[in-house]
Amino acid sequence: MEIRKKKKVGVLLLQLGTPDSPSVKDVKIYLKEFLNDPRVIDYKWLPRTLLVNGIIIPFRVRGSSKIYKELWELSGGISPLAKYTESKKKLLQERFKDDDVTVHMAMRYRVPTMESVLEEMRLQNYDHIIVLPLFPQYASASGGTAIDKAVKIISDWWVIPEISTISDFYDHEAYIDAIVERSKEFDIKSYDKIMFSYHGLPDRHVDKVYDDGLCEDQPCETEMNDKNRFCYKAQCYATTRLIAEKIGLTEDDYTVSFQSRLTKKWLTPFSDKVIEEWAEEGAKRVLAFSPAFVADCLETLVEIGVEYDEDFKKMGGEIVQLVPSTNDHPRLIDCLEDLVRQKM
Length: 344
Hints:
The protein has 344 residues and is α/β, with parallel strands linked by helices. It has two domains: 9-169 and 330-343, Rossmann fold (3-Layer(aba) Sandwich), CATH 3.40.50; 186-322, Rossmann fold (3-Layer(aba) Sandwich). It is 46% helix and 14% strand. The protein has eleven helices and eight strands. Strands 2-1-3-4 form a four-stranded parallel sheet, sandwiched between helices. Helix 1 packs across helix 2 (45-74) and helix 6 packs across helix 8 (232-247).
């Protein structure tokens, strides 16, 4: 009797994406692809097209290009998101050197494209493909759109292998540990305010999670339940509670907030407004975590590390200190390895 060999497994790590360069041309191409995604701006085609291509991109592209140039300068002339995603791929591959597992990496927007990487994977004839978006908390505009596109591409193949997807890992112990370890680089007691700043979302995005009622009807700030299990806001608060518990913080010691908003109808409180309020209250030193990102990027290094810090100092504060993202911390790689092995 022939013995079936171990399954040949392909792992696809997915990140949001980054412009090819900080030039106006490349940033425009990136923003056009990103913002026209109906899971990002969930309007019908015509109003979304008019809004994105007629208003947002023309009026924001040069400013965005300037910010990306600042990011590149802070990161040694390279996109930190691309750098650390590639590093994750290599480090995770080392964890499977004794298994028939190959780790790939692609970006939801720009390069390496999901189409090209998945075509490479198709040619490898994997028995099992594991799709792992690198977003700890689930949101339709991040992990949701990455999984959606991967499944759509694979669905066009003549031979469709076993497919597993990982929606989130907001409460994985190793992911939490990686953030806690990063925090040990700082004397937490020397800061009078602690912020857990997550990327913002429109209120309607979290409301869509519920078949009846709204996000505000759920106790998302204090508990997880069957209804809010996939609510981004609830997962953000759950992540924060787990980190705080390991660090030894009480609920009175920190504030959860949301950054990068486009309108007032986004998740609150807004991080920049919290910083402003703290400055008015006389706070001097702020320690800022950004757990939604597993790689430093525009939102961490520039928005928090530079812009919030500069604004806070102008209002009389001393420093807004960013806790670096998990990047390629060994405990984060432990998390990714465990997620993959669970699916295997």
